[in-house]
Amino acid sequence: MISFEFAEHFTQEWIESWNSHNLDIILSHYTDDFCIRTPMAAKLFPESNGVVDGKENVRKYWTIGLERIPNLKFELIDFLVGIDGITIYYLNTATNKKTAEVMSFDENLKVNKASAYYTA
């Protein structure tokens, strides 16, 4: 079960890692077999059809994203805690779009699945 304290710490660390643009730090939160489902991948990494499997493929996708949005910065709006996951609700200040990212964790408290939802 995910505790509120873990979720709060993870969320802050996650936002800071993205704002650092350091992919090694960002990817340290994820399992090797991590899978993300996101309409942004369909745009930036078309061969994925919106589903990117495996940490190395995710690295390729996120490298493209960071290159295309060099001023990327996330601001936390809120986070929600579930039994085995967290939803992080944030604003991408570079695009002025809100995102909700729903993350599931494995037994080692690493993210193994995520789905992202965006404002229009």
Walk me through this protein's architecture.
With 120 residues, the protein is α+β, with helices and mostly antiparallel strands. Helices cover 35% and strands 37% of the residues. It is built from 4 helices and 6 strands, in the order H-H-E-H-E-H-E-E-E-E. The chain has helices at residues 4-20, 23-27, 39-44, 55-68, and strands spanning 30-37, 51-53, 74-81, 85-92, 97-105, 111-118. It has a 6-stranded mixed sheet. Strand 5 and strand 6 form a beta hairpin. The model has no long low-confidence stretch (mean pLDDT 96).
Features:
120 residues, alpha+beta, Nuclear Transport Factor 2, Chain: A, six-stranded mixed sheet, globular
Strand content: 35-45%
Class inferred from helices and paired strands: alpha+beta
CATH architecture: Roll
Q: Please give the share of residues in helix.
A: 25-40%
Query: What is the count of helical runs?
Result: 4
What number is the mean pLDDT? 96
Taking the sheet with the most strands, its summary is:
6 strands, mixed
Number of domains: 1
User: Helix-strand pattern, N to C?
Assistant: HHEHEHEEEE
Categorize the overall geometry.
Answer: globular
CATH topology: Nuclear Transport Factor 2, Chain: A
Topology summary:
Elements: H1 4-20, H2 23-27, E1 30-37, H3 39-44, E2 51-53, H4 55-68, E3 74-81, E4 85-92, E5 97-105, E6 111-118
Parallel strand pairs: 1-6
Antiparallel strand pairs: 1-2, 3-4, 4-5, 5-6
Brief summary:
The longest helix has 17 residues, at 4-20.
